[in-house]
Amino acid sequence: SKLQEHKESLTDGEPRDLLDALLKGQTSRGRGQKSHGSEGAGITDDHILMTAAEAFGAGVETTSTTLLWILAYLLHHPEVQERVQRELDEQVGAERPVSVSDRGRLPYLDCVINEGMRIRPVSPVLIPHTAMTHSSIGGYAVSRGTRVLVNMWSIHHDPRLWDKPDLFLPDRFLDDQGQRVTPACFLPFGAGPRVCVGESLARLELFLFLSSLLQRMSFRLPDGDPPPNLQGRLGVVLQPLPYKVIVTPRSGWEGGAIKVGSG
Fold this sequence. Notes:
Elements: H1 2-9, H2 18-36, H3 45-76, H4 78-91, H5 107-119, E1 129-130, E2 135-137, E3 140-142, E4 147-148, H6 152-156, H7 199-216, E5 217-220, E6 233-234, E7 238-239, E8 246-249
Antiparallel strand pairs: 1-4, 2-3, 5-8, 6-7
């Protein structure tokens, strides 16, 4: 198994990935327990596997739903899709697939992803928190032990924080010089010690998936069909209602092939 492979190749150096970090925690925790004579309270293999599964599972579910929302909004705003594709054509071209190293050269694509996560957060209400001490929020007293829920939908649609919050405007994440900005009120993954453990994975997946899709294909509505309903349906996550889309390969990507060399 992957876990066993990581155990056998684990070194004292920097962890290579999440499994390495968890295994190092298991090892150091085990040494500490021996000195205190305690048993059964350490990090087990099951804990490691469940934590890894949670990180990847949460990332995959929320990522696929976020992509569906972004595509739905692109069908409402074809000019945004065209602008992203122009950026991809200018910065990457059609000679190779998009890579992680291209991220810094694709600011508008990043803004589209951020705006998709802002306007339709897949988790409108974040996981519960518990007040560890007597405190206050916005002038309201919060007693120790109180369960606190963060209303992400309200934060992301507050007109005091966002200009025209109900409109899909990716440019709100660019400053006057065209540089990316991240407002403090943009919290799609939460904040603090309880921030989503899958944030880095989800952001990477969203970038690679959306950039690859828009580099290779164009999306449009079937003739005569209305644009997608943007109300959504709340379940485990906020999902868009089913919609139809016509996908066509862009020039140079017919058949999925990458043009290499001069031919």
